[in-house]
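Final report, closing paragraph on structural work. Over the funding period we assembled a curated collection of sequence-structure pairs, and we close with a single example.
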Amino acid sequence: MLKRSILGFGMAALVSGVTIAAEPKLELTPFFTQRASGGFRDATGNDINLAGKSGMALALNWPASDHGSQYELLYSRQSTKTEGASPINMRIEYLQLGGTTLLGDEGSHVIPFAAGGIGAARFSPGAASLTQETRFAFSLGGGVRIPVANHVRLRFEARGYLTWLNGSSSLFCGSAASTTCALQPKGQTFFQYDVLGGVSVGF
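Its predicted structure, as stored:
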């Protein structure tokens, strides 16, 4: 009887140790995204909106605490174009360092969370003659995680990006000496939002 008790205790300790060791230290999430909003003015003062387009994103998360909060590095990319008679192709990328925090019980079937980060936005017009622009940006959002298997979760999220244009009176000029630029900001900031869906894999 004593031997069985010792053996049972040892097996339980072993299983417990394996479970602890198997807890993922990193979580990788590739996303499909749909991004909308955002716009500029042209050289004549007319509003120029960006077409809503799909894109991709990739998030890398790692634990920040014992309560389910995580640090996060997020990269999001969209290829779009301005609307109008003379469209300008443009790639818009965001790189954000921040994190996520739980808003509910980590053991539930649907786990809500809030997310945010700070970093940069990069605007790359398709025309080689136009300059690229990089500006400070931050993001806020939220979503849900749905566990489907061991260390595998579905992740759905909505996130807004606010980019500070630094009071620039013009963007995407042909050269430093150019007096005519392709686009002008509507204000001090530039706003876009993403709807994201992906699969998180822990390892």
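The longest helix spans residues 2-22. Confidence is low (pLDDT under 50) at residues 5-21. We thank the funder for supporting this effort.
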